[in-house]
Design brief:
about 180 residues; five-stranded mixed sheet; 7 helices; about 50% helix; elongated
Amino acid sequence: MIYGYCRVSTKAQEKFLREYGAQEIYKDSFTGTKADRPQLNILLAHGKLKEGDTLIVTKLDRIARSLSQGNDLVNELISRGVRVHIGNIGVMDNTPSSKLIRNIFFAFAEFERDMIIERTQEGKAIAKQDPSFREGRPKTHGNIKIDHALELLESKTYKQVENLTGISKSTLVRAKRAKRG
């Protein structure tokens, strides 16, 4: 059996996996910073991948972003007799040259991820120097509009206020809670 795995799936990734013979494709929609990948876990843990099967991914960093995690996963699969086909590298096996190539690619993927984190943190530090900086999403509704909606709640239901103001019930509940305490 040939299985495909996509993380942050795109049509191009799925097309690639199908072209290389993937009969079943498992997809997670998490970024590489998330360790938990439910669909990959299902594929790995429930005896789906058996000796003689193949797992195809478009790039090595689709299944892991750290050298140790990726190396452990690929080595485990290879030791179980599962072929691992990495689109931008080829088929992985236990040869010394395959191990070297894997380690180099994982090291670069980990380096790239670390650089993104570092640049993001530097950008935040610069932005925080501005006194008007507020972390997180900008507010959709101003304080005046929220206060008006809270006044309306005294005589109307949440649904009615939501329809009149366009402010969701969850936003109204949070605002009400914040006013109380």
